[in-house]
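User: Last request for today: this protein with 6-O-phosphono-beta-D-glucopyranose, please.
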Amino acid sequence: MAKHTMNIPADFIIGAASSAWQTEGWSGKREGQDSYLDKWYINDRHVWHNGYGPAGATDFYNRCSEDIALMKEIGLTHYRTSINWSRFLTDYENVVVDETYADYVGRVIDELIAIGVEPMICLEHYELPAYLLDKYDGWSSKHVVELFVKYAEKVFERYGDRVKHWFTFNEPIVVQTRVYLDALRYPYEQNTRKWMQWNYNKTLATAKCVQLFKEKGYGKNGAKIGVILNPEVTYARSSAPHDQYAAHVYDLFYNRVFMDPMIKGEYPEELLQLMEKHDITFEHTPEELAIIKNNTVDYAGINLYYPHRIKAQTKAWNENVPFHPSYYYEHFDLPGKKMNKSRGWEIYPKIIYDMGMRIKNEYNNIEWFISENGMGIENEAVFKNEEQIIQDDYRISFIGEHLYYTLKAVEDGSNCKGYMLWAFTDNVSPMNAFKNRYGLVEINLENGRSRHLKKSGHWYKSVIADRSLTVDLDEEYK
Ligand code: BG6
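Assistant: Here's the final one, the structure of the complex with 6-O-phosphono-beta-D-glucopyranose:
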């Protein structure tokens, strides 16, 4: 172990993130305003840990002022959340705004700005209205693309004068990967072609929102529009060509499928060929591809949690099973890896540095920041001291190491502007609900969802105040 101290640049973002559906709860939600997630929770409550879910969440809808006061206490520079598309409108076709919900969003934005926390707003963090899933098969439909752009316009009209950071989607690949590629979530339909169509339509929707944002001049006051992606930092098991190729194909299907069109304006030729070969090409027109080409994002938030290790697929494909990218790869279980056992995710902080270098070298060194990184831990109550403060030293080490590699990437020329922790308070995860806790602030479910800063909250506060990070590292980056 060696101690390292790094200075944090004055304008470097040190913030925290969350989303609407994972915090708000259903207070004030009207009939017909369910999101896809609400519907999944309503249909399949048994898969949600201890029955908790979006219904109660952290009750941020009623307690936002309390949480914002805690953000002030910690000194966050930025806070990201989403607007819940399913609640922002009462009529998705005619884009009729729910004034009560819109007032609440406006209040959150104003309160954040008033205390010096810059709001970052995502237009969708999985909150696809259930109505649009039922009626149009969700993102399968180009009509839904148009409705999303109309919704975005209403949002920009309302808050575009004061919000400087906009994002179309959080992790646009996730819902359809869990639902249509791997059939792990409601409504459990395996359909690789649909997976690819959703991927494409979300890219198209992003480009159309960027186009609208530019045409209407929402960027004139220095505001930017981007996307939050979750590219998986992929390492091949070995240097052998078959493993290298497996990792390369994995990267095409899960990372470059969004990074290339959204940042560079074009799909990789090799990915297009693979889609053709496996008959999963998305429906598209040359006009749409031109919109994608001409409307790339201003910047990108990158969510990074753990590395993905890949080896070549060795089993023969069952011809009766439709194509899945795992035709080419298998996951590789690295012996001796460091683990967060609660979440089952490997801990390897250098992923951030490696992503930083990749963006620098392969993505025109576009402006980016870590939009999520964090550690979900089970049964944190056992770490309480006599004053009932959770002593989450493991989280302090985790953040310290990851922030260190973020700052290293900056030092080595990557255009990285910040680090945002997932999450500000504990909140509801898909299915895992409150099982794994991520927050700087504890939500005590046994005590009316009361809020308490953890040791990491106090530590984060001192890092922000001092603009300096001191961390013990297992090994020095060379
Ligand atoms: C990110 C998502 O992928 O990971 C969040 O943007 C999510 O919504 C976070 O909560 C942590 O993952 P999980 O599954 O433990 O909640």
